Every structure is written in structure tokens, then in C-alpha cells.
TrEMBL record, chain A:
Cross-referenced InterPro entries: CDK, Kinase-like_dom_sf, Prot_kinase_dom, Protein_kinase_ATP_BS, Ser/Thr_kinase_AS
Key word ATP-binding present: yes
The protein, known as: Protein kinase domain-containing protein
Keyword ATP-binding attributed: yes
Keywords on record: ATP-binding, Kinase, Nucleotide-binding, Phosphoprotein, Serine/threonine-protein kinase, Transferase
One GO BP annotation of this record: regulation of G2/M transition of mitotic cell cycle
UniProt similarity note: Belongs to the protein kinase superfamily. CMGC Ser/Thr protein kinase family. CDC2/CDKX subfamily.
From TrEMBL, chain B:
Gene3D superfamilies membership: Cyclin-like
Domain Cyclin C-terminal: 187-312
A GO MF label: cyclin-dependent protein serine/threonine kinase regulator activity
Subunit structure: Interacts with the CDC2 protein kinase to form a serine/threonine kinase holoenzyme complex also known as maturation promoting factor (MPF). The cyclin subunit imparts substrate specificity to the complex.
InterPro entries named in the record: Cyclin, Cyclin-like_dom, Cyclin-like_sf, Cyclin_C-dom, Cyclin_N
One GO CC term, this protein: nucleus
Segments forming domain Cyclin-like: 90-178
GO terms for biological process, alphabetical: cell division; G1/S transition of mitotic cell cycle
Descriptive protein name: B-like cyclin
Family: Belongs to the cyclin family. Cyclin D subfamily.
Keywords: Cell cycle, Cell division, Cyclin
Amino acid sequence: MEKPGGGGVLSAKEAFEKLEKVGEGTYGKVYRAREKATGKIVALKKTRLHEDEEGVPPTTLREVSILRMLSRDPHVVRLMDVKQGQNKEGKTVLYLVFEYMDTDLKKFIRSFRQTGQTVPPQTIKSLMYQLCKGVAFCHGHGILHRDLKPHNLLMDPKTMMLKIADLGLARAFTVPIKKYTHEILTLWYRAPEVLLGATHYSMAVDIWSVGCIFAELVTKQALFPGDSELQQLLHIFRLLGTPNEDVWPGVSKLMNWHEYPQWNPQSLSTAVPSLDELGLDLLSQMLKYEPSKRISAKKAMEHAYFDDLDKRHL
Amino acid sequence: MSFDSSNHPISPDLYCSEVTSEVIHLDSDDEALKFNVLWGDSDHDDSDDESILLNLLESEHNQVQEQTKFLGQQLRKKTWLINAREEAINWILKVHAYYSFKPETAYLSVDYFNRFLLSHTFTQDKAWPLQLLSVTCLSLAAKMEESKVPLLLDLQVIESRFLFKPKTVQRMELLVMASLKWRLRTITPFDFVHLFISKLLCSASTWGDLSYIVSLVSDVIIRTCLVMDFLEFSPSTIAAAALLWVTNQCVDDKKSYCLHKNISIEMVKKCYKLMKQKLIIRRSELYWPKISQLLPRSPTCVLDHAAAMQESSDAHKL
């Protein structure tokens, strides 16, 4: 077997100068770095291969191959290259080379919380439109993200551009949706059908997350900040009412269903008081209990809430 | 080293089992829920399907330009490689059946295998490189598609003449991925099957029929992996031809070829003809000998299934 010559390719260490560690990803650290040849600033996501030598982790395979497919959309973070390297113990590591983004939505919201200011309504509208557009692009290509949250939404604070990142849990799907295991998702943005143990779930799980992010942009607080799966459900039920077979056919058949306290639905305006009527309507369509009734990302982009947004540069 | 394959009987009628399960539970509430969640038919929006189909066809076009034009030509120049390739793919399909992987996993394994062959030269005198490539491609596909992935050593339990250490497979994984430019999420015929079914069978489908047809179509698609002549067809063409082939057996009336304006009718016909020609002849050589028979949709199919398993078990002892 003839192997391709590796001698002419720079290793990750030779090609990049690490500047600082900026975070911890699903499987490893993230660094801000400079590409020596061009001086360009990039984000290096370092992935250790399994200690048990079972090869490249599935999350890395999925993230890389999905990003290779999606990176032409301006609202998905761009994967520029994949480099192999070795760590100090001589073990193989992979470096995913991404375009660098200065901040993320979590830090952005926190900065407003600290100053006591509200996020300007037009800024919210622009960010939400970009988020819907990026999600629509993923869904249009058969990709669920499954872990949308402010931390995974990278931003350039100068241009207010927003990009979806961290697709390590993303999954390709064909229609209709296949079964997936109950994998870890951040609780606060998790759709009720996932919390209730549905094994068949769909693009709608991402839309639920988008709705939670929308509310958080307005109030600067998480909409449903549960600290356990049960508490997460109770948070949701207190606001939207405890679901039943009338509002959500099939809900009582889900694996984790049992008797819950009975709450009546509250108006969304009690949770998001400063959002206007059109925004509340869009939010309510994102937070429908029945997944098939939830608005799609593509239709959300067409909602009247975005009518007065200048979309030419988005 | 080799394993006594009688210790690991191949699961018979992979898809028959699936269909049996669905048929039995057709009237249960779970099925009603599944139907509702899967299709949400009161809110089903054709424009969303159309949009997904357009995106798939665009991605497919980009993908096809890169690779499949030349693969068939290159492979045909080496007679020994044709046989070695078929042997390798047969091995992949046996492991696939053993672990009850999804059809997509089998198809992707072969796709990676083919694409790697396109860019690398193998010498005839050694058998282990192709075996290592088979293990590696199956491992990568399983990681992409399956919820539970067997250990790398466990993937090699069936009829493997060589046993590769996990570290070796890992190095090969990195080599294959670099060669494929990390494009493991590729368009397959399975991406199109349900979209085409929803066009072709709009009013006729019930959950049971749909599941049965999907199983048959999946079986046909997997069989195309073994026949090199199918490499000239795009995934959407294979999906369309497979569906038409299956439904012409199951549904008497003729169906339109116009699944989408971007799909070439001539290519679908050509592919369909090749399926008829190749797959009927080869049917007995594959692993699901009874899949093509229509299953009676009644509890007695459990007995038929048990009888089929018994037959398979008896045949194995010969």
C-alpha cells in the first residue's frame, strides 16, 4: 500500500502559535492562535483521541464532516482545516482550525446584565433572524444541532454577526426522523419531548432551543433554568401549563411521563414582559408543546416580527 | 487467525424482522403516536420537502462531480481488484447484518471504501491492506450513523483472516479521513427514499405499507453496492430506480417517473433496467433470501419468520 507523503505538510505545532486558551469544548481545549504563515488569528479546537484507542471519537467525526458540508453558510462557523499533531506524551491529537470569533451570545447577554442595560430591540431582531437563518440552513441540509444554547452561538461584536458552532452532537437525519439515543443536552434549552424520553425527535427540538434563546435575549435571564430534568419540566409546565392529551396528543405515552402537578398556562407576556405582540406570537409558535406544531426555522424567518428588519447584509 | 463462523450465526431476514414488528403493532397507540410524530400530517408542508429535496440534489451534484465519474473506469483496469473489492464488501455486509446496523451504515462503509480506492494504489500480492481498509471504513460509518458502536476488535469477529490492533485501525482511520478530506457526511440514496415515497404514494400509504416498502427499497439499495456498474449512477437515481422497482412488484399500477425535474428520466430507466438484470440473478447469493416475498400482514407471519430462521439454521449446518 502506498501512503501519501506527509513530509511536506507542517504539523499543527509548526503551523500555529498558541496565544491563549479560550475555552473547553466537548472533548478538549480551545485556543486562540496565530497561523505563522499568514498571521491570521484562528481558533484551534484540540481533540484528544480516545484513551482506549477506539479511534477518532464519533462526535469529532460528525462535527467535522457536518461542518465540511455546512461551512458555506455565513451563519455556521467556518472550519478551515484539520491538522494532526502529537502531544507531550507522543499521542496523536487532532486540531480543528476554525475562523476566530471574539465572543459568544452567553458573554454578550451577561455584559448587558452586568451594566443593567437592555439589549436593543433591533439588535435582538437581527440576532434572532441570523439564528433562524443558520438553523434553517442546517435543517435544510438534514442536520439537527441538538445543543443550541447561547454559549454555542459565536458573535462578532463589531458587526453583530452570529454563527452557529459546536456541532459535536449534531446529527444527520432523513425524513421521517430516525431513533436517537437519549444523549446529553444542556437542560435549560432542552425540548419537553426530549425531557419526557421521546426517542423519535425532530428538527423541532432545535426550534424549542431557539425560542428559549429568544426569550433570554429579551429578559437577559434563562427562561427555564432547571437544575434537574424534573425541575426543568416543572419550570416549563408552570409557564405553559401542564400538558395533556388535548394540547399534545400522545404526551401521556412518552417514556418518562407520570403524574405532575396541574398548572394552567400563563400568558407568555408574564415571562417576557417587554417583548412586543409580534415577538410574543413568534415566541409562542416556537414553544408549542406538540413538536409537529412548532414553527419551522424557515417559516420563522418569514414571520411578521422580522418585517421591519433590514435583511440586506444578513 | 480466523473465527468459526457457526458461532456467530448471521441474523436472517434483517428487514423481515423489522416489518414483522411493525405489522404486529400496527394498531397500537404507540404506532399512532409514531405516525403522528413522524409525519404530523395535518401540518405536513410540501414546500419544506421540496426545499430539502433541492438542497439534497445540489449537495449531491457537488459530491458527484468530485468522485464517481472516474471510479468505475479506474477499477475496471484491474481485474484482481474487482474481485477483491467484492470480497471486501461482502465482508462488510456480513458484519453489518451481524450487528443489525442501519442500511445507511452499510452504504456509507462502501462509499468510503470506493472513494479511498480512487486515490490510492494497492498491490495485488498482499491481502491485509484491503481488509484493514474494510474494517476502517465500517468503523467510520458506524461512528457516523449508529448509536452504539462496537469496539474495534469486536468489529472483526466475523471471518477475518487478519486481526488488527485498535491502534492500527486508528492510524488507518486518520489516513482514510485525510484522503476523503473529512467528508464523511455524504449524500446517499437513503436521503431521498422517504421524500420520493411521499411523492409517489401520497394517498395510498399507511404506516405498515410504508415501513414494508422502505425495507424492500433499503435492501435493493444495499445490493447495488456489490455491483460495480451502479457506480455511474447518482444516489438520487439509485433511490428512484429502487423505489420504482420495489413498488412495481408491490403495486400493480404504473407510476410516474417525474419525482423531480432535476432527476434524469433516462438515467433512472437505465438504472432500473440494470437492477432487473443484475439483482434478480444475484438474489440467491445475498443474505436476505426471503425479503422479496410479500409478507402476509397477519400474526402468522411470526410463524413464517420462525420457519425462515429454522431453515437458515438448518442450511447453515450443511
